[in-house]
Amino acid sequence: MAQGLLHSDSKDPESVGEQYFNELWSRGLLENVEEHALGYWFKIHSLVHDLAVQEARKEQQNLESLHQLSFVDCNKDLHRPTCDKICVLSNPVGGGVEPKINPVPLFKCITKFKQLRVLYLCNSSLEEIPTSIDTLKRLRYLDLRGSRRLKRLPESICKLQILQTLILAFCSEFEELPRNIKNMIGLRFLWIQTKQARLGKDAIGSLTSLRFLAIGGSENLTHLFEDIDRLNSLQTLIIYDCKSLVTLPKGMKSLSTLFNMALWGCERLRLTFPIEIIRLKKLILRGLPALTNLPMWIYYSVENLEVLEVGELPRLRALPTCLEDLWALRILRISNCPMLAGYMHPILQNWNKMKELRITFCGLLSKQVLKEANQPEFATSRIFTIYVDFKIIKLRVASKDKDKDKDKAEAKQTKEVNNDERKSDAHQTRLNNAAGEVSKQDGIGLPGARPTRQEEHDDHHEAKNNGQALKAQQHKGNNDPRFGTEQPLKAEDPKDIDGTVRTVPIMDVNSSPSNT
Hints:
By secondary structure, this protein is of the alpha/beta class. Among the domains are: 19-51, no CATH class; 279-394; 398-435 and 473-482 and 491-516, no CATH class. Helix content is 24%, strand content 15%. The chain contains 7 helices and 17 strands. The strands form 2 sheets. It has a 15-stranded mixed beta sheet with strand order 3-4-5-6-7-8-9-10-11-12-13-14-15-16-17, covered by helices on one side. The protein is globular, with a radius of gyration of 36 Å.
């Protein structure tokens, strides 16, 4: 998105990016893809990797088209290259070691790159960002995650109105957001950690272009901003490790575009208010010890909810009955809920799209599912595999369906073979009759040319043998996967058959039975 590669006249760049991802996945260019709560884990195909390395080497050879530059050791003197077309500037760090960065020479160099779009300075020892950052008018992506000494951003950063992504996650010393952050109207992705106790009005609530908002590790935070209802384009909300957060703002009930929500590690958080307008697709509730029941507003997402993950809820005793109506659910994960009990079979019967059910360390519920899995009626579930603790349960319904499909295929094949044999016999009879008419017209069979009785006996014996060989060959073809793909037989020379007309049944390639 930051490179401007996601183009569409009618779709958001986030939707276009997801479409590209699915296309690469379907073509096998992404491997070991695993769907997790709000994203995927995967690796690119080796061919794609080699192609990327090859293209990167070409860019290194030609500074005029260089798109990426990495600072391995920022203590060394930085010299300005002879070009100003760099689009990516990154500072890769290995081993979890914070690089010692002097911001003055670093940003003196960075600000020379007027075409810079992506600035990646993760896990750095930066304590401040120079005010000259506002000269990067084309900057769209700024990632400062893991900069544990960073305390604030300059007010001048708010002049970057086309900045789309700002990441301040795991910045444990970060004190507060800039006062004029409301001017960053181009922000679509914001991930922050702050020491603030409250997020005031006319700040984040003014960023109406936000699609993704994550707030985490803010132990002093007790209240979110009340004007959250102004975020009328927000699709994903993540709040984690906010130990003092008591409740969510009431304005959340107006977030009609919110599809994904994750809440975890908030020890005092209670979900007591209704959110009737929300139609969630993915919901994660973990590490909420004050929660005794799952929120009833899950019921309003029965037609949309695809992923539900709950865990570390020590006081949760039962699942809501509305779970039976979640017919769109694909993934259900329940972990570390020791008091949770109940029967899963009535719920599973209504889930037609379920791909994964995983229950981990839930005590009573784990034992009940293991017990139910051995019952015949449990096999009516459409889920083929269930994970319970360290055990994998293979439901019998999978093998039953496979056997039914195999029987149907064999019955269909037998029917097609019988039809082909009847057609071949009928066709052979018609050709024999026609051959007899032709022999009469050509003089064959006249009184002076009538074959002897011995010749008739030999011809009859030869025709019988040919018919048996033909049926054997046809039966072999019906069981041969190559049947129907051979080249057509060449007609024999009439001189070689001594006046005897032989016929070969014509098999239609399109109607020949397939070996399944």
